Amino acid sequence: MEAEIILHVDGSRRALTIDTRTTLLDALRDRLGVYSPKKGCDHGQCGACTVLLNGRRVNSCLVFAVAQDGAEVVTAAGLAEGGNLHPVQQAFLDQDAFQCGYCTPGQVCSAVGMLAEADAAQPSYVTEGFRPEDSPAAADLDDEEIRERMSGNLCRCGAYVNIVAAVRQAAAGGSGA
Length: 177
Known about the structure:
Pfam families: Fer2, Fer2_2. InterPro entries: 2Fe-2S-bd, 2Fe-2S-bd_dom_sf, 2Fe-2S_ferredoxin-like_sf, 2Fe-2S_ferredoxin-type, 2Fe2S_fd_BS, Aldehyde_Oxdr_Iron-Sulfur, Beta-grasp_dom_sf. Keywords: Iron, Metal-binding, Oxidoreductase. The protein is α+β, with helices and mostly antiparallel strands. The protein has helices at about 25-30, 85-95, 105-120, 145-150, 160-170; strands at about 1-10, 10-20, 50-55, 55-60, 70-75. The protein has 2 domains: about 1-80, Ubiquitin-like (UB roll); about 85-170, DNA polymerase, domain 1 (Orthogonal Bundle). The protein contains 5 helices and 5 strands. Strands 2-1-5-3-4 form a 5-stranded mixed beta sheet, with helices on both faces.
């Protein structure tokens, strides 16, 4: 069975007809030619496919595209504005937070989403007391909190030290090493 849907991807309205079993990841890559989200495990375990869906980070391999009709999808490629990198993208460059780069688009989108979650006082597993009022703002995240909040994104190269440093820099609004 097929369905017609509209997705707003990186600021562009995109109409497509898809099989109702198509994942958002496959719709983006195979139907729309948006290659920033990567297909890693295809089981929601690695985070390489992470995108921002209506402002929240999701593993795009786990959601059906047909259920996202009308949704706003932002990939790592759509974060930059006016020729300027997003602060998280810049921090990843400044901190050399990648090696092969395969996981980087998912890491970047996850970092953007988790910083928004922290700013909204959403606690993580390691947040003291598990109460929103105790949850740190993005600027107050320590390394343990960053590691926990980014734990759904794996890096086969092991660039975690630099990824944490990049997220810390972006959270603090910093601009370099």
